[in-house]
Amino acid sequence: MSTSVGGPASVSLVSRDVEEARHVGGRLFYPHSVEVLGDQQSFGIHLDAAELGPVTMGWLSYDTEVEIETGKLQDWYQVNVPVSAVPRRCRPRRR
Asked: Which partner for 50 in 9, 10, 17, 33 could form a disulfide, CB atoms 3.0-4.6 Å apart?
């Protein structure tokens, strides 16, 4: 991971570790779970993001099919724009 100095905070991550993906994604965006639905051996995350004041923007891709679930979003919005696959569900898990 990297953070820039003197400008917007930025993060870049390439990893094959699911736990690292959960930790970094949860810290940067919102706490969430990542479940690998596709081939476990093919798992990989590619993340580039920057915090611009109160807005975090990022480009996130996985090398295999995953399911991402968040808790209830309290006081903010999340906008996802799929570029190569259509998400099956874009809402918090109900408990």
From this structure: 10
